[in-house]
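subagent[fold] <- orchestrator: predict structure for attached chain, return tokens only, no commentary.
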Amino acid sequence: MYKGEFDKHIAQGSVSNSFVFFGESVFLIDMYTRLLTNIENANILTFYHDEYDFNSAKAHLSQASLFGDRNILIIKSEKKVPKKELDTLLELCEKNAENVFVYAYYGSDHKTYNNKKAFGSKETMSVRFFHPKEYEAQNIVLSVAQDKGVNIDKYTIAHILHIHNGDVALACNEIEKFQVFKRAITTKDVDTLVFGLAEVNLDDFIKKILHKKDFKEDLQNLLEHGEDEIRILTAITAYLTQLYLFNIYIRVNGAPNAMDILGYSAPGFVVEEKSKLSLKFKPNTYSKLHELLLESELKMKSAHIDKTAILFSTLIRAQKLL
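subagent[fold] -> orchestrator:
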């Protein structure tokens, strides 16, 4: 089924206790996983990616609930759980209505789980989540803003979404920045505090710099299409900060976790790409790059300065540090 039909089941209280979530929108998969497993005093076991262990998952759903608490199993992975194992876990939910099982599949094989015959359990609800439409995205961000006590209208939310190329996860994360304001948020506030890293051309431009490739033509193209020099510089700084967080996390924990680092789940290929790139540079290099970028940003904000010349010079110096 699709999101609209599933929302009706939620509204009517006719949902099952086992779910398979998949599709194009990682954000919606995670959002509905949280919604369906937010049960007070529940006994929750969560497997992330390669952590999945069938015997442990089976034991969790098979055990008697402690003090009447409910057993909840969550599997988040890009890899498909073997059909026999998945059927066993779903059947355990069918036998015990107190169990809750959510399989959040982030992989790209949408055909398998789009077919009801893929499951041994008849009660399982399989939901495919597409990227939310514009009005859906605005409503989601508005709901997050209301929960966080941020006074913002849909017009301003649409502006944030536009900056982030419609990425709902990024837009929702931006809302926290505005919690300090005790007034209505304006588009001017957004322009001051939000930097769009979701735009593919800017993202590719930053990666070209970090891979020490020729960026001159790309920079000219960005500026001709209205990108501001300061915004480009701050976007690079933010991207480097993100890479540094990946670098630190991997050094400490041995493997990346997008939820811990970014605050939201990201597609596997994105996590893998940023992990590899982050480890190319030593902590001292990150420090020197940030110092260079912040000094250049300060110069750009001075009066009567050729911002383009400073940006160009800064990027050449940055590549020499890599």
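orchestrator: received. Logging for downstream: The mean pLDDT is 87. The radius of gyration is 23 Å.
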